[in-house]
Amino acid sequence: MDKKNVHSLQDKDTVEMLFLVKEKTVGVGKNGRPFMGLQLGDATGSIDARLWDRVEELARQFETGDVLKVKGLVQLFQNRKQLVIHRLERVENSEVNFEDFIPKAARDTEDMLVELINLVRTMRNDHLKQLVLDTLEDPEIRPRILRAPAAKSIHHAWVGGLLEHILSICKIMDFMGSHYPFLNRDLLLFGAIFHDIGKIWELSYDNGVSYTDRGRLLGHMQLACELIDKKSARILGFSEELRDICKHIILSHHGKLEYGSPKRPKFMEAMLIAMVDDLDSKVATLKSIVDGERGSGEKWSRYNELFDRYFLLDDLNEKY
Hints:
Layout: E1 14-28, E2 34-42, E3 45-51, H1 55-59, E4 67-77, E5 80-91, H2 109-120, H3 126-136, H4 141-147, H5 161-179, H6 185-194, H7 199-202, E6 203-204, E7 210-211, H8 213-217, H9 220-232, H10 240-251, H11 268-293, H12 316-319
Parallel strand pairs: 3-5
Antiparallel strand pairs: 1-2, 1-4, 2-3, 4-5, 6-7
């Protein structure tokens, strides 16, 4: 088996490697032949792949999230690398170290957690501070936060991605609390930390990133609300009104009903949390898209359906 990785693949490379299946589609080409389109990856990146033979038969043998042993050839298609698959077979999960296929956060997660806890200790409301500290220092929750991704595929979809997302929003909220002194900074920090914390149970990240049964049945918002009930019940003097305020932040943080929020934000702190969550996730998603396209030799990205546009690939931070 080659010791190559996705990042190192070049045009005309022959490949015999293990890949994680990130996306899988079956379609029909302009010539009328069925084909399978795949996005394959490892911890270093992703590559588009095409299979033209035995499509229906092979499509039944694996799913997204499985690891495949692939033989094929890298070629340029529209000036971008594409893997033409000659042969593939599914590898049993027991034979795979999934850590090799999931990207990791850029920073050490232990360092990020220390920074986050230090920020929490500056909160002034003792009840909210205890709720958050009791959660972050919980022996069941702490190791999960250190490893959990923030999403299956869209944003911060890597080991430690949830913590990276949380800390990023907390830093923004720390600034917002001073820039807009009429806002409750403690609620902003609480929302930054708790809005996605249910994802430590919603997502499984031992064999790739996938949804758990609880995640599919309940979702991360409900799981976070259950956590609020459980932790706040042990805090003397934690009022029912404050508990409802906390839950509303969770239930409204997707901003709109059509985006999956059971409630729309009904006070400024909840609105700001929804807006900054959307901002941070979009920045991370766009960075991943642009980083993945740079190196193709093209000035513009491929058309991106999520953002409905092409993106300039120049690094303006370096260029100007």
